[in-house]
Amino acid sequence: MNSSPSHGQYRVAALYRFCRLRDHESLRAPLAAFCCGRGIKGTLLLAPEGINGTVAGRPEAVAALVARLEEVPELAGLDVKYSSAEEMPFYRMKVRLKREIVTMGVEGVDPLASVGTYVEPADWNGLISDPGTIVVDTRNDYEVRLGTFSGAIDPGTRSFRDFPAWAEENREALAGRKVAMFCTGGIRCEKATAFVKSLGIDEVFHLKGGILKYLEEVPEEQSLWRGECFVFDERVAVKHGLAEGEAELCRACRMPVTPEEKLSPKYQEGISCERCLDERTEDDRRRYAERQRQVEEALHRGQPIPLGSGS
């Protein structure tokens, strides 16, 4: 288990564990009550293959939740990565039952049976700097656009469900090479490396703890990371040292927007950005404008932001 960065009044915990989680349905209500009773917000996913989620709350509350999860025998040994936030990065608490804790949609992919070789953040630069290594970003295109490792391949996927098809199509290019894969917190790579190995690719590696652990542990002056790392909460992105980034969300399409992209004439806060302006109707934009008016009014009065405006 990892220690938490000390800055920020809220502790954010990104956690997962692949395991044979028997009777996962029975955990839903108790976990929801536990979190809500302690002011914890975020999302936890429960499935027969384990748990995945990101939550935030006061440090003592998050510590209590992690301890509670560790009491479940199958969940002992959780992979937890901590960061912090100045403001609560979630609007509500959700505990959901799923078929998979990270959805690839391919039957039989089991990280407990076969997975790539874990690479510590301190050793990652050496691996991806090797000319014999193919570096693959397993995240979605909108995440890659904000930042990635130097020289990494962007599969151009809109969803993790698209990754197996990309890997199949590029099997020959990957064969006989070292394949180094990475994702935000490590969980997607558990399945991505298992799938690539099932294609007969032997030398498959992935960044332990994902980009988040790399940005926490590797000094910026030694880093091969470029840009910011998208996170699925109201912080939008983090950068080296896990400090909050500068990207914001377009409230119309919920895609990240960089400071440079906000200069586009197609960008209107809460209403549109250059990627979604032409995909929305005038009726849509009127609704978004009214929502933005309500948000600004709530902020001006110091009231909670309307739930419909956020995640």
> Class by helix and strand content?
alpha/beta
Relative helix content: 25-40%
| Radius of gyration, taken over Cα atoms and rounded to an integer in Å | 20 Å
State the end-to-end distance: 28 Å
Total number of helical segments?
9
SSE order, one letter for each helix or strand: EHEEHEEEHEHEHHEHEHEEEEEH
Work out the strand percent: 15-25%
Please count the beta strands (DSSP E, at least 2 residues each). Answer: 15
Q: What characteristic shape results from the CA principal axes?
A: globular
Major β-sheet strand ordering: 4-1-3-2-5
Mean pLDDT: 94
Major sheet attributes: 5 strands, mixed
Assembly category: single chain
Unreliable stretches (pLDDT < 50, length at least 5) are 1-6
Protein name: tRNA uridine(34) hydroxylase
Catalytic activity: uridine(34) in tRNA + AH2 + O2 = 5-hydroxyuridine(34) in tRNA + A + H2O
Keywords: Oxidoreductase, tRNA processing
Family: Belongs to the TrhO family.
